[in-house]
Amino acid sequence: MGIDIEAGGRVKRKVRVSKSDNPYIRLLCKLYKFLARRTDSKFNKVILKRLNMTRRNKPPLSLQKLAKLMEGKDGKIAVVVGSVTDDKRLYDVPKLSVCALRFTETARASIIKAGGECLTFDKLALRSPLGQGTVLLRGPVKAREAERHFG
User: Strand pairing of 134-137 and 117-119?
Assistant: First the structure.
């Protein structure tokens, strides 16, 4: 007996694969693919999905927004799949532990000067493989100039 396929056929779920030539992102995808498969943590599945997203869907997050979102979350690690940029409007940067794909030079300098730390995703996987003690953040996807002209 064969499969009884209704009109429209069966749905095949194809996971998006990153087209990036960056070897660091490729290795991170392999690492988090392994962690997503071998652990029950939804955190790793979300990180893998976001690593595979297009650059347009990995918008930068400013240091001011990061500080505002991390208020009252002492001892937790902020996780951003994208870049963290500096904000000149923020005079006193709080002590933060931030994990991101990239940091601008000035953002990294101001985080370290405040006594915080900048982590990479491979260091995060060693420190917190299940995503415990982390806060997952993302930049504003609809803040692109092009979005103003849609709809």
Answer: unpaired
